[in-house]
Design a protein that fits this description.
Shape: globular
Order of helices and strands: HHHHEEEHHEHEHHH
Distance between the termini: 81 Å
Radius of gyration: 24 Å
Number of strands: 5
Structural class: alpha/beta
Mean pLDDT: 82
Low-confidence stretches: none
Number of helices: 10
Helix content: 40-55%
Strand order of the largest sheet: 3-2-1-4-5
Largest sheet: 5 strands, mixed
Length: 235
C-alpha cells in the first residue's frame, strides 16, 4: 500500500543491524570465545561465507555483553521482575556445604591495554567417591559450580555479584568456606556476602610465606629451615 512499509523486521524477528539473528548470535559467541575479534571475524567467514570487519565484530560483541549486563542488573534491582526461567532460577531448598572463591586475573584488551577481571566461583561440596590412595586428603569435590565475572572495581563487582550470592543462597547454606589469595578486596567481598564463613588462604599464596616462617622459627639453622619447608610443602 502506498505510504506504508510492511514491518517485516518484526514479522521475521530481525534484530537491529545488517546481520540475520542467527549470524548475530554466532558472531556474539565467537567474539566472546576466541582471543581476538580478528580471529572471530575469520571464523565467521569460514562458517557462513559472510565477511565482516574486526571493528564490526567488536561492536556486536560489546553490545551483546552490555545488553546481558543490563538485563542482569535489572533483575538484581527488581526493575525486571519477569525474569525468564532457566538455570538462574533460585534453588528450591537451601544448599548444604558451599565453597566460595573470588580472584582477579589480568586480561588483554584492545590497543595493548590490560585490565583485571574479577571472578566469583561457587560450588557445593560433596563426598568424593573417586578419591585415590595417593591423595586420601581429597575427600570432597565440588559440584554445581557457577561463575560470575566483571571488569570493574571491587565495590562494583561485589554489588553486581549480589544476585549470584542470592541465587546460590549462600547465607542459607549449612556451612560455607571461602578461598582467596588473601587480598584485602577479597576479604571485603566475603565481609559483605558471607561474613561467618571459614576463610582459607589458597595453597600457592600460603606456600609463599613458608620461607619467612621458617626463618623465624629456625633462626640460625638453615638446614632445619629448609627441611621444615619441604615437609610443610608436601603435607
Amino acid at each position: 500500500m502506498r505510504g506504508r512499509v510492511s514491518p517485516l523486521d518484526r514479522v521475521w524477528g530481525l534484530l537491529p543491524g545488517k546481520l540475520p539473528p542467527s549470524v548475530q548470535e554466532l558472531l556474539d559467541r565467537l567474539g566472546q570465545a576466541v582471543p581476538s575479534f580478528a580471529e572471530a571475524m575469520d571464523l565467521l567467514r569460514m562458517a557462513t561465507r559472510l565477511r565482516v570487519s574486526a571493528a564490526t565484530t567488536r561492536r556486536y560483541t560489546e553490545r551483546a555483553g552490555a545488553l546481558l549486563i543490563a538485563h542482569k542488573e535489572a533483575v538484581r534491582t527488581g526493575a525486571s521482575p519477569k525474569a525468564a526461567p532457566g538455570p538462574e532460577a533460585a534453588p528450591t531448598a537451601p544448599p548444604g556445604k558451599l565453597f566460595v572463591e573470588v580472584d582477579g586475573a589480568f586480561v588483554p584488551l584492545v590497543h595493548g591495554e590490560w585490565a583485571e577481571v574479577k571472578t566469583l566461583a561457587i560450588g557445593e561440596g560433596v563426598p568424593n567417591p573417586h578419591r585415590s590412595r595417593e591423595r586420601p586428603d581429597q575427600e570432597v569435590r565440588l559440584t554445581a559450580r557457577s561463575y560470575f565475572s566483571r571488569l570493574a572495581d571491587w565495590e562494583t563487582f561485589s554489588a553486581q555479584a549480589t544476585s549470584e550470592f542470592q541465587r546460590r543462597q549462600v547465607r542459607k547454606a549449612a556451612a560455607v568456606a571461602t578461598g582467596s589469595d588473601g587480598a584485602d578486596w577479597c576479604q571485603s567481598v566475603f565481609d559483605q556476602h558471607c561474613p561467618g564463613a571459614l576463610r582459607l588462604l589458597d595453597f600457592g599464596h600460603a606456600g609463599e610465606r613458608l620461607g619467612n616462617v621458617s626463618q623465624l622459627v629456625f633462626a640460625g639453622a638453615p638446614q632445619s629451615a629448609r627441611g621444615w619447608v619441604e615437609h610443610a610443602s608436601m603435607s
